[in-house]
Amino acid sequence: MPFFILVQNPMKRIISFCYVLFLVCFVSSITLVSCKSKKSIAEKPTTKTFEKAIKLVKPEEVEEVKKDRAYDIGKRLLESCNTSRFKTFNNTEATDKVRQNATREKISAICKKINQRNGRFLNINLIDISFNKKTKEHIFRYSIGYEKKLYKRELFVTINTLNQVSAISTKEVSSKPL
After folding, report:
1. Cβ–Cβ < 8 Å for 100, 118
2. Rounded to an integer, what distance in angstroms lies between the CA atom of residue 141 and that of residue 56?
3. Burial (CB count <10 Å: 0-12, 13-18, 19+), residue 71
């Protein structure tokens, strides 16, 4: 039985009811305020800051060494899917991180998946070159040609200031509707 019903005096009963109601409202408001979701401190980068950090550059503005390195490494990696022979990268071609991640086992597993979906590798064509102002790296984006034309893939090769591959990845691109 609630406390305010036990009180005999009607005036005290009303006061005790108001007191209990006040406590319930106060506690619930404190709970609501304390459970309010926090705003994140770090702001997400907007498209404007992204556009400022990375810009497209013309192929003529990039050193031949960088262009050749990106093309050769990308083509060599993708051709290994056809031949099942992968020549590991050396110190001058790739960073330690890339050499550690580019093992024969990992590459053969990835090649197996890609070959099932896309068929044999044919060629790569340069789409564009981006320059990351913060890291001073060039990002080469290639379209990958395969026997099967059902799925489009792109190759991204990142070359650092020492002309080493610092990242390499492929990505399936969704086809654009007509």
Report:
1. no
2. 11
3. middle
